Amino acid sequence: MIAKLIGIVAISYVLGSIPTALIYSRIAHGKDIRSLGDGNLGARNTKRQFGWCAGVLVTLADILKGMLAILLAKETGLELEAQMCCGAAVILGHDFPIFARLKGGQGFATTTGVFFGLFPLITLVGAMIYFMFFFMTRNSDLAASFGMGFIAFTQLLKGAGGLVVGFIVIALLFIPFKQWLDRSRVREIAENSKQTTQI
Questions:
Q1: Are 41 and 19 spatial neighbours (Cβ–Cβ below 8 Å)?
Q2: Domain of 175?
């Protein structure tokens, strides 16, 4: 059982590591998205560089990665706790991909895919709330707070165990944490570049 869990977790990480934004940018535009914009391997940077259609395509691909990891865990008979381990692995794979020097996206789409796999109906409602607030405010981060917050709050009301609620909260908090890491990296690169220019 432990060997099977380790194997599925490893597969989930590798699945998350597939750099969909990089693959798209190279195939569709012959460019490396890591050298464009903020260098992030996510849907947001893809949208900024190549337009809405490109952003939606990468978003759907990243959501699919998260869903596939959970579906694989379910199909192999893993319990909910083990499924969440696979969910964590696919998110970490997306954020720190082995195929892209551990520099990935910020994980919002892949986290959404994991939630779709674990809590499909509740996540669907959360996605509807996200789109409603996004069209009202045009602020993706604010809309995500309402949509994702609904998922956590609903699970809490349903009496889900502390492990489930804790997983949701940690997964959600990891998104702004990864954003902070990426911004710190961009600032560090900019400062090093400025110092090199002065020398």
A1: yes
A2: 2-118+161-198
**Predicted confidence band of residue 91 (pLDDT cuts 50, 70, 90):** very high
Query: Could you tell me if residue 71 is inside a domain?
Result: yes
**Is the residue at 80 inside a domain?**
yes
Structurally, the chain folds into a number of domains equal to: 1
* DSSP characters over 150-187: HHHHHHHHTT--HHHHHHHHHHHHHHHHHHHHHHHHHH
**Closest by CA position to 106, among listed 95, 96, 98:** 95
Query: Where would I find the H helices in 33-139?
Result: 43-50, 52-75, 80-95, 108-118, 120-137
Residue 148, CA atoms < 13 Å, CB-side half-sphere: 26
Q: Is the pLDDT of residue 192 over 70?
A: no
Q: In angstroms, what is the C-alpha Rg of the chain?
A: 17
Per residue in 28-69, pLDDT tens?
Answer: 999 999 888 878 888 889 999 999 999 999 999 999 999 999
Is 17 inside any structural domain? yes
At residue 122, the pLDDT reads: 92
Tell me whether residue 104 is in a domain. Answer: yes
